[in-house]
Amino acid sequence: MSGWTPTKDLEKEAKQGQHSNMSKASRRLPLPRSLAPRPAAAEQNARLARPQAAHAYATPRLAQFLREYKLVVVGGGGVGKSALTIQFIQSHFVDEDSYRKQCMIDEEVALLDVLDTAGQEEYSAMREQYMRTGEGFLLVYSITSRNSFDEISTFHQQILRVKDKDYFPVVVVANKADLEHERQVGTHEGQALAKHFGCRFIETSAKQRMNVDEAFHDLVREIRRYNKEQAAVRPGAAAASKPAQFQEEQTQSAGCCTGCVIL
């Protein structure tokens, strides 16, 4: 009892209450995009370049059997790349980097290592670094931004140049489908662009979690198909060309009620 006073208890409670309130406030008020902590570019590139590693949720015994896919989310600023990625990985919508997820795709477990390239659009050298190491790319634009749609062709051309291929696994993603009243890019335009690339097309809404999983799963399916074709090609033979099955898939998916349009 020596040394105890009601004043000391009151001071202790006041400090604890102040700390608790500050913690709650910090959780309620996310940092602005420009101030939010993000991993350094060098760290992102090193993470992408490292060999397959165990997933956080997988035991070491299980992890050694998992196939890891390095996916890259590409697109202009403000199209929703971060939101799309986090909605897929964590199943909730937030405003902002690099994520991993274990999931089942067509009865096969896959470990997805997803790089969100937000904030790197202006650095061409850095862009080429993640393009070298990525196995597949989501080419994301916003249906509310004509400029972001026009940028997709530039990203696609750069991927093919860096990979030195005529075709490489990509999926064209039209994001922010919930903002129909602000639409600047028609669905038919996205379909036509994907057909030109010879790839799949899908409209998504990260905010409403519409077709988010489907976009990433479709990319993994395309990587698997591409890898099988590459393995079947004889040494010195031509690289895989644009897949021929998309025209048939377009017809089969014309009545898709989920808003998923596949070419």
Keywords summarizing the entry:
alpha/beta; Rossmann fold; about 260 residues; six-stranded mixed β-sheet
Write the layout of secondary structure elements.
Layout: H1 6-28, H2 41-49, H3 60-63, E1 67-75, H4 81-90, E2 98-105, E3 108-116, H5 124-133, E4 136-142, H6 146-163, E5 170-175, H7 187-197, E6 200-203, H8 212-232, H9 246-252
Parallel strand pairs: 1-3, 1-4, 4-5, 5-6
Antiparallel strand pairs: 2-3
Helix pairs in contact: 2-5
Shape: globular
Main sheet properties? 6 strands, mixed
Question: What structural class do helix, strand and pairing data support?
Answer: alpha/beta
Q: In percent terms, what proportion of residues is strand?
A: 15-25%
The parts where pLDDT drops under 50 for at least 5 residues are 17-42, 48-57, 247-263
CATH fold-level label: Rossmann fold
Overall pLDDT? 73
Integer count of domains? 1
Distance between the termini: 78 Å
| Arrangement of strands in the largest sheet | 2-3-1-4-5-6
Name the helix and strand elements from N-terminus to C-terminus, one letter apiece. HHHEHEEHEHEHEHH
Query: From the alpha-carbon coordinates, what is the Rg to the nearest angstrom?
Result: 22 Å
Can you describe this structure?
The chain has 263 residues and is an alpha/beta fold. It has a single domain, classed as Rossmann fold. 43% of the residues lie in helices and 16% in strands. The protein has 9 helices and 6 strands. A 6-stranded mixed beta sheet has the order 2-3-1-4-5-6, sandwiched between helices. Helix 2 (41-49) runs parallel beside helix 5. The radius of gyration is 22 Å and the shape is globular. The relative contact order is 0.12. The model is unreliable at 17-42, 48-57 and 247-263 (pLDDT under 50).
